[in-house]
Design brief:
This protein has helices spanning about 20-30, 40-60, 75-85, 90-105, 120-130, 155-165, 190-200, 220-230, 240-250, 260-270, 285-295, and strands at about 70, 110-115, 140-145, 150-155, 170-175, 210, 220, 255, 275-280. By secondary structure, the protein is α/β, with parallel strands linked by helices. The strands form three sheets. A four-stranded antiparallel β-sheet has the order 3-4-2-5. Strands 1-6-7 form a three-stranded mixed β-sheet, sandwiched between helices. A two-stranded parallel ribbon has the order 8-9. Strand 3 and strand 4 form a beta hairpin. The longest helix is centred in the N-terminal third of the chain and has 20 residues, at about 40-60. The two termini are about 15 Å apart. InterPro entries: Ac_transferase_dom_sf (IPR001227), Acyl_transferase_dom (IPR014043), Acyl_Trfase/lysoPLipase (IPR016035), Mal-CoA-ACP_Trans/PKS_FabD (IPR050858), Malonyl_transacylase_ACP-bd (IPR016036). Keywords: Acyltransferase, Transferase.
Length: about 300
């Protein structure tokens, strides 16, 4: 499992292969800062998370560890595609840099995402519909679990929705550390340009099952994966559906790549029998030991 933006933190690149960091600079001109200030910038966030995850994939590959299924949440689809052998490291870096710049330039300020915990999607949808304002648009976006839904759009509009959600009994309703309105119709223009960029990249058939964000389905079709890489920004992420499908494949062990452990927490609540490894919370050697023991 490959998370997207939201759990980035200062110092998370400390142990990443310097060659990967240098590659980012060579290919994009971006010097990764790995600081609190740097992680206010979407380009810094996205490229840093990408190479952090690719570095961890590389370490597991060196031990001949290959996934049976991969699932990426939002930005995480690129590391998932890399882990599945679909996209080369250089191409992933260049495309993610373009993705981040397109997103940031489309909505440089005043937009973002929020999360609501404790209400059903239909309840959140009703709140968004009742309080929709063209000047401050908000859309229901990701379905992380049955009772965890995100909203995307204008910050003023999101704050209104969050306040109404709290009044309606939500356990939690807060802004996320995501500076763009991802996974909403507001990102269609960005998705179109990203799809054009990906059309020039050579993608290979995956060596494992790929769970797609845009519809939650499992696939081995490289065309469907290409569509997901380019267009998931304008669709909700159906993470809850993706994890249900992973269960159908009789998954016994999951690995959540850094940063954070949100995906593992969601999976434990849904499928407590699946053994979990969270790379953000343990040394790589410990993770390798557990994989050798469990997988």
């Amino acid at each position: 499992m490959f998370p997207g933006q939201g759990s980035q933190r200062r110092g998370m690149l400390a142990t990443v292969d310097p060659n990967l960091k240098n590659k980012v600079t060579e290919l994009t001109g971006v010097n990764l800062e790995d600081t609190d200030q740097g992680y206010l910038d979407s380009v810094q966030i996205q490229l840093s998370i990408l190479i952090l995850q690719m570095d961890q994939v590389n370490q597991l590959r060196a031990e001949n560890k290959q996934p049976d299924l991969v699932a990426g949440h939002s930005l995480g689809v690129f590391a998932a595609a890399y882990a599945a052998g679909v996209i080369r490291a250089d191409d992933a870096i260049k495309v993610v840099a373009q993705r981040a710049n397109l997103m940031q330039n489309a909505y440089p300020d005043g937009y973002g995402m929020g999360v609501i915990v404790g209400l059903l999607r239909k309840e959140v949808t009703q709140i968004v519909t009742d309080h929709f304002d063209e000047a401050h648009p908000v859309y229901v976006s990701n379905q992380n679990s049955q009772l965890q839904v995100t909203v995307s759009g204008n910050i003023v509009g999101i704050q209104t929705v969050l306040e109404k959600a709290k009044a309606q009994g939500a356990q939690k309703a807060k802004l996320l550390r995501v500076p763009v309105p991802s996974h909403s119709p507001l990102m269609r223009g960005v998705a179109k340009k990203l799809t054009e960029a990906l059309s020039k990249v050579t993608l290979k058939a995956p060596n494992c099952i790929y769970l797609a964000d845009y519809n939650g389905h499992a696939t081995r079709d490289v065309k469907k994966i290409a569509y997901d890489l380019g267009n998931n920004l304008s669709y909700p992420v159906y993470w809850d559906v993706m994890m249900a499908i992973a269960q159908e494949y009789l998954t016994t062990v999951s690995v959540e790549f850094s940063p954070g452990h949100v995906m593992t927490n969601l999976l434990k609540a849904k499928a407590p029998d699946i053994k979990t490894i969270t790379l953000a919370d343990m040394a790589m050697d410990d993770a390798k030991f557990l994989l050798n023991k469990w997988a």
